[in-house]
UniProtKB/TrEMBL annotation:
Pfam families (UniProt xref): Got1
Subcellular location: Golgi apparatus membrane
Entry membrane topology: Multi-pass membrane protein
Key words, A-Z: Golgi apparatus, Membrane, Transmembrane, Transmembrane helix
One annotated Gene Ontology cellular component of this protein: Golgi membrane
Protein's UniProt name: Vesicle transport protein GOT1B
Length: 137
C-alpha cells in the first residue's frame, strides 16, 4: 500500500513529464519546461525520500548525468530552452539508462504495447537499449 507522499511523488513525476512534453510540443516553451523540471525534481524526492533522492543524483558514478541535467535546467531558466532541453535529455539518459530495459520489459506486458514497441522505429530504439545492458566479453 502506498502512503500519501509516494502517491504525491508519482503524481508530481507524471505532471512533470506531461509539462515537459507539452513544453516541447509548444515549441520549447520556457515556462512549461521550467514547471515540468520543478515537478519532476520534487517527484523523486517525495517518492524516495529527500536523502535517497539526494544520494541518487549526487553519486560519484552519476556525476556526468547529474551535471548535464542541472545544467540543462539552468539553461532553460536563463533563456536557452532548446539547448537546455537537449542537454537535459542527455543528463536524463545518463541518469536513467540502467532502468530503461526493465521499463521496456514492463511495458511489453501491457496489452498492445508490445505490438507498438515491435514496430520499425521503436524496435530499433528498443534493441539499442537492450544492447546497452550487455557486459563486454
Amino acid at each position: 500500500m502506498l502512503d500519501d507522499n509516494k502517491k504525491i511523488g508519482i503524481g508530481l513525476c507524471g505532471i512533470g513529464l506531461s509539462c515537459l512534453l507539452l513544453g516541447v510540443f509548444l515549441f520549447f516553451d520556457r515556462t512549461l519546461l521550467a514547471i515540468g523540471n520543478v515537478a519532476f525534481l520534487l517527484g523523486p524526492s517525495l517518492l524516495l525520500g529527500p536523502s535517497k533522492a539526494f544520494r541518487f543524483f549526487f553519486r560519484r558514478e552519476k556525476w556526468k548525468g547529474s551535471a548535464a541535467y542541472f545544467l540543462g535546467i539552468a539553461l532553460i531558466i536563463f533563456g536557452w530552452p532548446f539547448v537546455g532541453f537537449c542537454v537535459e535529455m542527455y543528463g536524463m539518459w545518463k541518469l536513467f539508462a540502467a532502468f530503461l530495459p526493465k521499463v521496456l520489459q514492463s511495458l511489453k506486458l501491457v496489452p498492445g504495447a508490445s505490438t507498438v514497441l515491435n514496430m520499425w522505429p521503436l524496435s530499433v530504439i528498443c534493441s539499442y537499449i537492450y544492447d546497452q545492458r550487455r557486459l563486454p566479453v
